Amino acid sequence: MQNNRFSLLCAVLVATLLPLRISAQAAHEFRDHPDIPKEWPREPVRSRHGMVATDESLASQAGVEILKRGGNAVDAAVATAFALAVVEPAAGNIGGGGFMLVRLSDGKSAFFDYREMAPGQATREMYIKPDGKLDNEASTIGYRSVAVPGTVAGLALALQTYGKLKLSEVMQPAIRYAEQGIPVSEKLAREFQNERPELQRFSMSSRVFLNDGNMYRVGDTLRQPELAATLKRIAKSGPDEFYKGQTAQMLASGYGGPRWTHHTRRPSALSA
């Protein structure tokens, strides 16, 4: 990756739909696990020019694609993050938030905080039952459990600050995956099956992730046209579309009111 001035460490923490179960291990050892694809390397991998690493090969390929187009590491990281929103619904979605740590070639670093925030009209009573006791489910399942996502705003800010390419360019791989579909892996099929009791409680999640009860099998194609349309709107109009435009209005309407749109997420950035 010639003329690339950036090296990047990006840690993204996002709201999850499905739990990830990964055993801890020491840094110096490798242990096989059912969730680790057989095609993954079992030894350290090195590269002279650039590298993209995720737990989904299609997301990594999206980052590499952007590097080959002349993008820098931040361009690739943003492209990869949006791609994860499509290929890893368990954790990579645009409905969450995260952090990004960027280290420049001159040794300077920058940190982006775009974690989720409570909606502007959120109240303590949202999670209290009529009898005064805590509703344990309200903060984890359903509309009341959703915070204002920071991912879209944070990724756009990182790209604007340190990227070379336009948002519309780096989002193309994610849009393509959502529109054309991705093959359902053994891991993804298992996650859908494991989370079926919760996902089937809502018509939208049941239709998208459970195929209306006709469970996806390994090798099937998962297409997400609504997500593709959302990504296209963001790519065309920027993050404000997600927080104030058509997407925001659709979400607020689905949630039964304007609470969600009353707090636009503004990520913060620190440099050192």
Task: Give an account of the 3D structure.
By secondary structure, the protein is an alpha+beta fold. The chain folds into two domains: about 220 residues, no CATH class; about 35 residues, no CATH class. It is about 35% helix and about 10% strand. It has a four-stranded antiparallel β-sheet, covered by helices on one side. A two-stranded antiparallel ribbon has the order 4-5. Strand 2 and strand 3 form a beta hairpin. The N terminus is likely disordered.
SSE arrangement, N to C: EHHEEHHHEHHHEHHHE
Strand content: 5-15%
Overall strand count: 6
- Write out the strand line-up for the largest beta sheet, numbering strands in chain order: 1-2-3-6
> What's the overall geometry?
globular
**What low-confidence regions span 5 or more consecutive residues with pLDDT below 50?**
1-28
How many DSSP helices?
11
Helical content (DSSP H or I, runs of 4+): 25-40%
Largest sheet: 4 strands, antiparallel
Mean pLDDT: 84
Number of domains: 2
State the end-to-end CA separation: 25 Å
Radius of gyration: 19 Å
User: Structural class from helices and strands?
Assistant: alpha+beta
